[in-house]
Write a structure and sequence with these properties.
Elements (H helix, E strand, L loop, with lengths): L4 H9 L4 E6 L4 H12 L3 E7 L1 H11 L8 E3 L3 H13 L5 E4 L4 H8 L13 E7 L6 E5 L9 H17 L6 E5 L10 H14 L7 E6 L1 H5 L1 H6 L12 E3 L3 H13 L6 E5 L14 H17 L1
Parallel strand pairs: 1-2, 1-4, 2-3, 6-9, 7-8, 7-9
Antiparallel strand pairs: 5-6, 5-10
Helix pairs in contact: 1-11, 2-11, 4-5
Length: about 300
């Protein structure tokens, strides 16, 4: 079981490297992260984009990237398509979004003919060290699904359980996070949490232990759970935190990074291969952690 981001980083450094195809790589941030990923033995790369622009930026930034192959493409749509095609043809292991819109990148990923589409819902998972530094927390969905209904939440839970199990959490404890820890008929997210918990009790959602609703504090803090009289094996001891919507997830992800100053990584699953999609506001360290997490997950598939 991987118990920290440091342990994850070291495992990937000492494993066979994945090849990442970067769609629209002509960007200083992307090139800087790629250089650091290569120097840390995390991954190899193929750059897709305008060779003149990419080579100009490599020279301008004095990046040690002259041996990285470049696949020629001159517009965002073409870059996204070629990055995905490199993966589907086996020339690369995963695609990475460079300097282009998420919508353009995802259209190529989901292309019915040559894309990476599956029958699963695509969801994002933030991975960070838990508050006791005794393991990892998997927080979902902070970036992809805006207001998931109950069926989408089932898929989000299943995706997170799949990832957690790949990281060695054989039966992850899943907390369904809302604003409070009691069922309130006027708050649909608490009703959804109760239904999902009962579905898990009856074996309709497998390979995990689900409880909820929880407020955040009594999902991750045993002390808080005891003070509020919230009991059970998940209370104060959750591995996976399932948020009620993207607003809660996005704020929680950013609060972890900016207020708590904790490192995070991010993976996107539900496709044939993990997707590397980092935000321009992510720190270099967090981008490297996302590359490491996606690479590790892909290697375990």
């Amino acid at each position: 079981m991987i118990k920290s981001l440091d342990e994850l980083f070291e495992k990937v450094k000492n494993s066979q490297k994945n090849i990442i195809a970067v769609a629209q790589a002509a960007d200083h941030d992307i090139l800087s992260v790629a250089e650091m990923a290569i120097s840390n033995n995390l991954a190899d790369f193929i750059f897709v984009g305008n060779p003149n622009n990419i080579n100009h930026l490599i020279a301008e930034g004095n990046y040690n990237l002259k041996n990285v192959p470049i696949v020629e493409s001159y517009d965002d749509k073409g870059c996204a398509q070629k990055a995905v095609e490199l993966v589907t043809s086996g020339k690369a292991d995963m695609p990475m979004k460079g300097l282009l819109s998420t919508a353009t990148f995802m259209r190529a990923v989901l292309d019915k003919q040559v894309g990476l589409r599956t029958n699963s819902l695509i969801s994002q998972i933030t991975i960070t060290d838990n508050i006791d530094n005794t393991g990892l927390n998997f927080i979902t969905d902070c970036a992809m699904n805006i207001a998931p209904d109950i069926n989408e939440k089932i898929s989000i839970v299943n995706n997170a359980v799949f990832v957690a199990r790949k990281f060695g959490y054989e039966c992850p404890k899943v907390a369904l996070i809302t604003a409070l820890e009691t069922v309130n008929p006027t708050m649909q997210e608490t009703m959804d949490a109760a239904v999902l918990s009962k579905m898990n009790d009856r074996g309709q959602i497998k390979n995990c232990l689900i409880d909820g609703p929880f407020a955040l504090d009594n999902a991750i803090s045993k002390t808080s759970a005891e003070h509020k009289g919230v009991s059970g094996p998940v209370a104060g001891n959750a591995d996976i935190l399932v948020v009620s919507d993207i607003r809660m997830g996005n704020v929680l992800h950013k609060a972890i990074t900016y207020y708590a100053k904790k490192r995070v990584s991010s993976v996107i699953v539900g496709t044939k291969k993990p997707l590397v999609m980092t935000s321009r506001s992510d720190s270099v360290q967090d981008k490297l952690m996302s590359i490491a997490a996606s690479s590790y997950l892909n290697s375990q598939s």
